[in-house]
Amino acid sequence: MIRTKVVRAPDLIARKMRGEKITMLTAYDANMARLFDRAGIDALLVGDSLGMVILGCEDTLEVGMADIIRHTRAVRRGAGRPLIVADLPFLSYQVSIEEAVRNAGRLVQKGGAMAVKLEGGALFAPVVERIVAAGIPVMGHLGLLPQSVHAQGGFKRQGVTPEARRQILSDAVALESAGVCGIVLECIPPDLAEEASAKLRVPTIGIGSGPHCDGQVLVSYDVLGLTDHPPSFAPRYANLDSAIVEAARAFSEDVKAGRARTERVVNG
């Protein structure tokens, strides 16, 4: 049964307490957001992954505030029920706490975000505290940090050494104490994700971190089969790439043959 009540940040913690799993997908435009809303997805992440998925960049570092604001506004227009979480892009929160609060406020005020997400651990706890104090829910992000791809040596699994495991757990506790409403755990060992999930009161949202988190998030284009090289942990639930190619090819053939279809080809 699809819920109709708008999902808010406190609802995520309530769902963890009730043992209910949380579903999250990335969204970048109004139409896809509308479809995910209809499917009953709990939260939509307007991720800086749009740089790679939508803009064709090699990583997320080229994405700026204007990009996230524009796409968040589009997603908000399309979806009325899910929690809309917007990424704070690279260098929008690392320079100063004041700038971080200001940019988080822009995502809410101009983009329509209902929460913001930032990468990093205890070092950014004071940033989280100030944004939360301004009345803006914050989601944390630990493990593989795409904005730190160069420092982490590429897109690879994190938390594999004892020291790294301890650091991730310590960072998770620090973020919880700072007031986050949840923490994304990306590409860490499943047993570490399970330990963090049991340790925290706030929900964990896993991506490539096993089944034991309180929820899961994936890049929607990977799920739909619209990317050529999805990560190994992202299952394809559809193969829309081939369907789109076939539709475009059929259209092209009709045009070149002088045919003009006037009937509705697909019911909908």
Task: Assign the CATH superfamily.
Answer: Phosphoenolpyruvate-binding domains
CATH architecture label name? Alpha-Beta Barrel
Strand order of the biggest β-sheet = 1-2-3-4-5-6-7-8
Order of helices and strands: HEHEHHEHEHEHEHEEHH
What would you say about this model in short?
The chain is of the alpha/beta class. It has helices spanning 9-18, 30-39, 50-53, 65-78, 97-109, 125-133, 162-178, 190-199, 220-223, 240-256; strands at 22-26, 43-46, 83-87, 115-117, 138-143, 182-186, 204-207, 215-218.
Q: Can you offer a commentary on this structure?
A:
The mean pLDDT is 95. Strands 1-2-3-4-5-6-7-8 form an eight-stranded parallel β-barrel, surrounded by six helices. The chain has one domain: Phosphoenolpyruvate-binding domains (TIM Barrel, Alpha-Beta Barrel), CATH 3.20.20.60. Helix content is 40%, strand content 13%. 42% of the residues are buried. The chain is α/β, with parallel strands linked by helices and 268 residues long.
Give the SSE map.
Blueprint: H1 9-18, E1 22-26, H2 30-39, E2 43-46, H3 50-53, H4 65-78, E3 83-87, H5 97-109, E4 115-117, H6 125-133, E5 138-143, H7 162-178, E6 182-186, H8 190-199, E7 204-207, E8 215-218, H9 220-223, H10 240-256
